[in-house]
Amino acid sequence: MIELKYFGHSTFLMRVNGKQILFDPFITPNSLAKDVAIEKINPDYILVTHGHEDHVADVERIARKSGAMLVSNFEIVSWFQGKDLENVHPMNHGGTKAFDFGKVKYVNAIHSSTLPDGSSGGNPGGFVISSDEGVFYYAGDTALTYDMKLIGESFAIDFAVLPIGDNFTMDIGDAIKAADFVGTEKIVGMHYDTFPYITINKEEVKQLAKEAGKELFLLQIGESITL
């Protein structure tokens, strides 16, 4: 079982085999997350899917304080190395790396990726995390893609963290198809409500997920669950 704590937008802290993994930290610029005490977040690893501000805003601050290892694609890791972050590990699509909590596979995402200063963030991606406590897919920002079927063929996915806000990413309908592709009935929603472009009707998306036989989790900021 894996513990998830939600900090808004696409930011989750996962506890896997005693290690804390922070995904796409965007907290201090997010008005919805104003009550989150960022100074108390001390991950062992920070995993970043792509270079947009709403996924990297707090990487440097949290990494310097915690000493966490940054794991991302080559371009994003190199950009942060230019800011003198030294505890880093670069990856690229199709690659797998074993860490002390489990294995990380960097998989495809269909999106864009530009870092806050206009530098290229390389190609966006997602992560499949495999451990003896569970296996999950963190999609990052992406459109629906047939590549997700390869994930379902290669892994027994316990749950998938999927964007559902539409406009910039999948909507709930495509997220349900993505869950089918990767072979899970459990969806943790992300990338919704933070901005007017991605505001959703929560009751409507819950109903659509229910009708499709999916269990949809829409966490409150600061809420923790175990899956």
TrEMBL record:
Pfam families: Lactamase_B_3. Residues 8-191 form the Metallo-beta-lactamase domain. Keywords: Hydrolase. It comes from the Bacteria. SUPFAM superfamilies: Metallo-hydrolase/oxidoreductase. Transmembrane segments: none annotated. GO terms for molecular function: hydrolase activity. The keyword Zinc does not apply. Coiled coil: none annotated. The keyword Transmembrane helix does not apply. PANTHER family: UPF0173 METAL-DEPENDENT HYDROLASE MJ1163, UPF0173 METAL-DEPENDENT HYDROLASE MJ1163-RELATED. Belongs to the UPF0173 family. This is UPF0173 metal-dependent hydrolase QWZ15_19390.
